[in-house]
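Q: Hi! First time doing this. I have a protein sequence and I read that you can turn it into a structure. Is that right? Here it is:
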Amino acid sequence: SDHMENIYGYLMKYTNLVTGWQYRFFVLNNDAGLLEYFVNEQSRHLKPRGTLQLAGAVISPSDEDSHTFTVNAASGEQYKLRATDAKERQHWVSRLQICTQHHTEAIGKNNPPLKSRSFSLASQGSANSPGVQRRLSQNAVSFFNVGHHRLPTGKRVPIMQPDHLVDVREMMSQAEGQQRDLIRSIECLPVSGHLTSLDQDLLMLKATSMATMNCLNDCFHILQLQDASQQKGSLPAGTTISWLEPKISLANHFKNGAAQNFPAEINKPASVREEQSVVEPCQLTREPEEINPDEELEDICDDKEDDLGAVEEQRSVILHLLSQLKLGMDLTRVVLPTFILEKRSLLEMYADFMSHPNLFIAITNGTTPEERMIRFVEYYLTSFHEGRKGAIAKKPYNPIIGETFHCSWRMPKSQVATDAGHNFSAHSPSEQVILSKDLEGQTELDYYTVKFVAEQVSHHPPVSGFYAECVERKMCVNAHVWTKSKFLGMSIGVTMVGEGILSLLEHGEEYTFSLPCAYARSILTVPWVELGGKVNINCVKTGYSASINFHTKPFYGGKLHRVTGEVKQNTTNTVVCRVQGEWNSVLEFTYSNGETKYVDLTKLSVTRKRVRPLEKQGPFESRRLWQHVTESLRDGDIDKATEHKRALEERQRNEERLRAETETPWCTKYFLKE
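A: Yes, that's right. Below is the predicted 3D structure, encoded as structure tokens:
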């Protein structure tokens, strides 16, 4: 109560892309639980330009900088605000959170339980009945009746009686049963005809009904908290009422049409329950570790991601997730279902971009600056095909802060191009394995070694750093990437914020480059990946640059995965090389001398990376860290994989909370922030 005073002052408010940020005078009215703003202080006596109810609101400091924060009202309205400095932001955020919590609790104490509302499917009648002969002016909602469940006459809704939650639970059970009936009725519809089970309106109704039931479960949990606080007198110190994860186990709610609703603890595998009970915060040694390449063995793991079964089975979970998202929403903090995960960490995915080390090493062998730039562009465009595992769009694991991944490649010197001939080897995968095995008996002088290390250097925002080097050729690449994902309706877009620098020490040259955006398309049916956006490669010393466009498929017509680009000399503005084709198929390079070269990416030899066995890896190396999740996914046990994943994420949250309380900064292991 000491902190419940009204506060006021100027803040910057984001309006839109056209208007941008504007100074406005804000007033926090604690008594009414309102945040109001005016054009300026002089207009305080007038009607506010805008008002937000703070009961049920969420106050969030932004990751963008130390000055910005957002106020998300329960109505869905949002204010994006910016203070003059970090101290002022903290002052506003703490006062707003105190006011919000006070009024949220007051609503729960003063309001009786709400009556539930549910949907029921109308009788279908014969196939020729007018109700089934759907007209264009109708939509699927007209086939459903909305009604309130009334209690028997004379029975009043009890107000805060000891057993009042029993009635609420009973009504919710009825609603859950009717919601399951609704889902079954929709799924029993034919797959073709006027009204089908794949009708877009019906799919959305399935998603929103599930989201509604999970929201009601969250509300019921809040009521239980408030009931406990009344019996004990007050909530425990530090308790905040917040939206929790759904009480219904989504992975089991609809599996092959069978409805299941068991308590989460029962669904949890016994091995995971025991493991979670002994998980302790891992105190990492932050000293860089020298990896012995002789301990690394050729990787035999080959997890292709072509299985659609899980996606088909979990359609209702995808619909539930979509019903909670808004267009443009940042997915960084959204927990995505486990069945859409690849069996590798994002850090290992970056390593797979290096699967053609012969092309990487060949860059520095170019005899002229022009040739070296062209070789880098050729290597760059061939790296994305192997970075994707299979045709299905699945998501790598989000790396845990402090997670690392180490590997290396050995490349016979005879397979690295030394002249303008650009020795693109076209060995088949089976031939390549034989070549790799032959390396075991060769002396160190017969091959080059490319070493790779990646580290998750930040959790919010999620930033990864990766570094690769070939000491013999005095070349290295150093990059950092912040993966910003957004919901775009029927697709998800990932912007790769950051840059990389390729250093050729023999020539004293640095090439800066960026990465394209990635899109997961058709997330309701067969998800697939495409790249999009313009990237630039530039070498200041030589004056050569490259501009590459990854083209997304137009709505009508057009080719998939198309890429075009050109390399030019900036001083004379002369184009020395043009490229076109598909980044996952065939690329055509046309040079200034009239020559043309075709590169079939599907036939390029892939050099297997070398990785230490699990027993020799540290506890925070990717494969050892995620091994239980990976094994469960391979076995097809989605529930067990989810529990292992949740245990890792919960440990990360606990450690982050501990660092915040003790004001201990995070120390990176291999990378320094500039």
